[in-house]
Every structure is written in structure tokens, then in C-alpha cells.
Amino acid sequence: MLFGIAAAFTASACLVAALPFTTDPPAPAPARAPHTTTTPAAAEPASSVDPDGGSATTQQPTRPVTQPDATPEDGPPADFGVFLGSGPEGIRRADAMSRWLGGTPITVGRTYLPGDLWSNIEGRPDFLRPWAEWRSEDPDRLFVLNVPMAERNEEGVPDREVRRMLRAGARGAFDHHYRLLAERLVGLGLDDTVIVLGWEMNGTTYTHRCAPDPAAWKRYWRSVVTTMRAVPGQRFRFDFAPSRGTDAIGWAHCYPGDDHVDIIGMDSYDQPPGADFDEQVRQPYGLQHHVDVAAARGKPISFPEWGLFRNGDNPEYMRRMLDWIAEHRPVYHSISDYCPHGVWWCPGNTASAEVFRDAFSPASLPGAGRTARDEAAPPSGGTGDELPARGPAGAAAPAAESTADEASSEQEDNTPAG
């Protein structure tokens, strides 16, 4: 067994060392040993040539990044969040979920800019203001914003049109939209936002997908990041977050370069490809590859989206994913807590909910107690279908709530990656 584990990590290390990320890298080979929890050591910073013929870049974040203090024995890191709606309703529901956890604070607030129109991608102040107020109430809070790279982002735009859009973006045609977004974020006091730009770009769902023209996509990303970093007062961090697995294209083919990426994230739901957690770890472009590549490039990691999905109420997945998070210490992680992915809002996932609650409840602390589950029950008291269908590959844009207690209803149409 020890020989097999050593062989697997030797193969993984060789693979990462072989990935220049300057030309199309080879697809990773699956590991040949069962899952192990050994953390690979980070490689020394190295230089690489810009993919499009520019000057050499260094493999370090452009600004210091603080990692949460956590070890596997401590449980998951403190910086965790939930997605329970894109507007003020998401903030209120997170407060209720915190009570369900016995008062454990939810320190990460995450939402999505609507991707229908450029005017919304520019970040309307009335949309951002509730999150700015939430962020300002506690200096330990972190605001994470998913930012589309194209309007009509979930309208099934054909590859030919996507290719034209990416090439226009690579020429700087859309930079003014992102300059305005950056100015608005800074003006609202959200100058240290984590920007999850063009998420799940390796899939087929979004107009901002990479596969139709990877070279143009990378130039476009760099143009956006350069534009937003030029705004005075900003301290943004940019999170490159593909979905787990190969999907339409191996996500290494889309990596825009170390100088323009601060965090390497991954969206990972309990669904194929990956029949069980071990397979999710060792599959090509899976969880192990993610942490290996990030370590080799001197980057911290994140899990902007994760949760249950096609494998149903799966406490083993929940336990293993929380262990993985605790071991690999991401900057932050955020569970999608609506049906079918969640543990609080979605009442059908009771076994997984208990695993999650046990991991985050402060009940083991002296004098601490738990809030009864029904004291912080979801306001729907039902299936959770009232929440927008935001999740893995193929989800509707989050909608603002229509009343104080319910969000607009959308039918989920998620397709498995790959």
C-alpha cells in the first residue's frame, strides 16, 4: 500500500512539473492508487513564458494572500460561506443558517452578478449595496463576487458567436464595463473583493466559456484583470475557478497566467464524472490535480461552489469533502445551500445535514449549545425550490426575491459535466 501511494504521488508530481501552462498542456493521467490525504509540498517559484509571446512571468501571487489557520484536527477552516440567494434574502438566510449551526458565524458572503446585460455586469449600486453593508459590519468578513465575462451568459449562444465575443474581449472591447465595476466596488468599500471571473469556463453552459477559442479567452481574462487592477484603491484578488473534471476542455488550457491569477479555485459537486469521492479526487483534472497544480505554481486554492447533487443525500461525500477542505486549507469555501445541493434549506438531505452541522457547530465548546433545527428552519418549510437554480454546469441566473420571505422560482436544468 505504501509503495502504491508513493508511486501515485510520484506520477502526480511529474505531471505537474510537466505542465508549462504556456502551450496546451497534456491531459493529466488518473492516479493509480487509492485516495490519500498527504499534502504535496509547494514547488519553488519558477519563471514561465507568456502564452502569447509576452515577457516572462513569475509563479507567485501578485499580492500577499492570507490562509486561514486550520489543520485537519481543527475541522474545516473558519472562512466559509453559503449561497442562499443573490440579494438581501441571501444575507438573511445565511443569518438563519448560522443560528441552525449554533451561532457559528458565516464569514464569507458570495453572490453572482446577473449575466443578462452589460449594465448588470457593471454592478448596479443598488445590487451591491446590501453586500457592502454586510461586509462593513465585520472586518473579518470576506465578499466573493462571481463576475460574468459576457452578456447573454446563459442563453445558449453558439460557438461561432462566442468566438467572436472572446476575440473582441481580447482586443479590449469590453474593458470599460469592468473599469466601471471596479470603480463601483471601490466606492462602496468592497475594494478587497475576491472576483471569481468567468467561472466554470471549461464547460459548455456559459457564453464566457473557453473552448471555442482558448487563446482569445486567456487574453480577454488578462485584459479584464489589468483593467480592474488599474483602478485606484483596489485590492482585488482574482479567482480562476473551473468545474471539476475535463468537461468540454481541460481547464489547464484556459489558465491565463500566474501574473493575472491570485487564487486557483474549483467548483465541485457530488455528481459524475466521479462515481464516488475517491474517483472525484483522482480523475483527470480532479481534486488532486487541482491542489497539485496550485501548490506547484505557488497559489492558494478555493472552492467557490460545492455541495450535493446527482448522488443524492450522501453523508460520505459530505464527510470526505469537509475533510478535504480541512486538509488543504482553501482561502475560502462556499456551499450552495439550496435544493438539491444543500444541507439547511433542503430538508431531504438529513444525513448530510447532520455531518455538516456536526463539523461547524460550536456545541463542543464549554457552555455552547445547539439551536434546534426547526428553530431556524427554511422559510419555505418545503423543498427549497423557491431558491434560484444556481449550481453546477447549466443553471439559471440567481433572481432577487419577490417578497420578504421567498425568492423567484426557477426550474433547474443542470447537466453533468463531461
What does this structure look like?
With 418 residues, the chain is of the alpha/beta class. The chain has one domain: TIM Barrel. The chain has eleven helices and eleven strands. Helix 5 (159-170) packs across helix 7. The longest helix is centred in the N-terminal third of the chain and has 16 residues, at 2-17.
Q: What is the general shape?
A: globular
Distance between the termini: 31 Å
- What are the low-pLDDT stretches, counting only 5+ consecutive residues below 50? 1-27, 29-73, 364-375, 380-418
**Order of secondary-structure elements:** HEEEHEHHEHHEHEEEHHEHEH
CATH class: Alpha Beta
Task: State the secondary-structure class.
Answer: alpha/beta
Mean pLDDT: 78
**What is the annotated CATH architecture?**
Alpha-Beta Barrel
Signal peptide: 1-17
Domain GH26: 27-381
Region (Disordered): 23-81, 364-418
InterPro entries: GH, GH26_dom
TL;DR?
Helices cover 30% and strands 11% of the residues. It has 418 residues and is of the alpha/beta class.
